[in-house]
Amino acid sequence: MSVDAAYGARSAEYTSLFGDISSTHPDDRALVAEWAAQATGPILDLGCGPGQWTGFLHGIGADVSGIDLTPEFVEIARSRHPELEFEVGDVRRLHRSDGSAAGVLAWYSLIHLAPDELPQALAEIHRVLRPGGALLVGFFDGEDVEEFAHAVAPAWFWPPDRLAAELEDRGFAVDRITRRRESGARPHAAITAHRNG
Predict the structure, then answer these.
(1) Which of 33, 95, 148, 165 is 20 to 30 A distant from 138 in Cα terms?
(2) Has this prediction a pTM greater than 0.85?
(3) Nearest CA to 59 among 23, 86, 21, 87?
(4) pLDDT tens digit string along 41-98?
């Protein structure tokens, strides 16, 4: 089953479990808010799901819109946040103009891409970001780049230094890496970066 179909089949369940910003870690909310404050212009919430982060960003004053691969999520996001713009789209083929975004939030939206698919996604993010534009990526922290059985669809662990190197190879400068390990949860990491040039 494709990733969009897998999430579509469980969209109501996912939304009930994770669709409210209160279900997110307070450290993540603080990081996203701090990052967004530096993105002066339109922010794209890439892989927005039911729109919890899009709504959060809007609530702190950001000019934000959302894109998700799963039509069911886009429908839910539109119903929950009718004041915001959401569209169905694929990170590997974004229907956005070059340099149109000041920031891209990719919060766990790259985890289902195989390593050979990641370069195309990063190239697209680089294309839509303006020079100096900000990127924040959230992902599962692992000792190796390896696939694991995510509850919805196969996903990938990435060592933060390996993902940082992928970003740098695609024209980004890495600003900060954060990591979190807690009992009962998969290790988490985030990278903030900006587009060179």
Answers:
(1) 95
(2) yes
(3) 21
(4) 999 999 999 999 999 999 999 999 999 998 989 999 999 999 999 999 999 999 999 9
Place of tokens 């939206």: 109
Q: Are 86 and 78 in contact (CB under 8 A)?
A: yes
Cα separations in angstroms, 12 against 8, 9, 66, 72, 106: 8, 8, 18, 9, 22
Give the whole-angstrom CA distance, residue 97 versus residue 116: 24
